Fold:
Amino acid sequence: MSDLPSFRPTFGVEEEFLLVDPRTGEPAPRNAAVAHEAELRGVTLQLKLSSCQIETTSGVASGSAQLGEELIRLRRTAAQAAEAAGVRLLALGLPPATPHEFPVTDTERYRRIGEQFGMIAHEQGICGCHVHVEVPDRATAIHVSNWLRPWLPSLLALSANSALYRNADSGYASWRSVLWRRWPVAGPPPFFPAPEDYDRTVDMLIDSGVILDRKMIYWDVRASENFPTIEVRVADVPATVAETVLLATLIRAAVMTAVHARGRGDDVGRLQPAALRAAYWKAAHDGLSGQALDLVGGRGAVPAREQLHSLVQRLRPALEALGEYDHVTAELDRIAAQGNGAMRQLRAWRKRREVMDVIAAAADATLS
Structure:
């Protein structure tokens, strides 16, 4: 893989955050007010479908240190804006304390989504992390999407951060990912032989009224319609900036590896849909603390951390070309010792079964 250093794609991150009442921990429909306060501080925040959510968008980064510094600044500014608006900013995949429904943000497009998709839209409050990575062209983006499919469950397990929901242990490390797949075009993307197949499928979904527009392509990997990038959307929003940077670095290296494989003519296998679905469910359920399905090596069930290690070794040439291999392994060792977001949530919950303990732990992690 000696030519890997010649392709070092830029990358960027979008992080979605939950807004909660600081007294009760319940979702607070104040995203417009928080966005206004952030604008006064020089940061533009994006409104999301639920009015208890807000999103930050990084600039284009060329390295993990640069990305990490910006994400810290964005989180801190968004947290200050939230406090000024009377609410609290949390990096959580789902609200631990939940009302019966989430008010939809009052824009024309979001109102249409709320009207057409009913309770799916009104039980949202789902916060993810979207990593954008540069690719040479759209055909390469489709190849990268195909290449990533068997590894998506490992990235989900790594980022799992939604174990608590409706004042209870959900029984899953990432309950967000289970709820998210209720949308008609969500979860792992199909295998597409060529961009034309992708376009035909999307046109069918729009023409049939299954989705309103191309922005509603919610697959966990999707090619950008407007930029030479691919977007990986499989993750819960990670609890800490360090975990987001780790996730983004692994995805960047995976894109590099996939592009290199295409250059060598490596085939991308078509996974059995049942196997991929099972691997997703296992990753959502177990997170990093249990088992994973090895879709690449065919070994059946293996420890989730062992499967993640296999991914890192597959990406090692790209990580070394970026000068990130030691950083990645050190971060994974830290997570093995301290746990990821889901593990920390459960530790906080199991002490007293008090949701505000989970809120407090999440608030500390968000700005750590």
Notes: The first helix runs from residue 31 to 40. The chain has 14 helices and 13 strands.
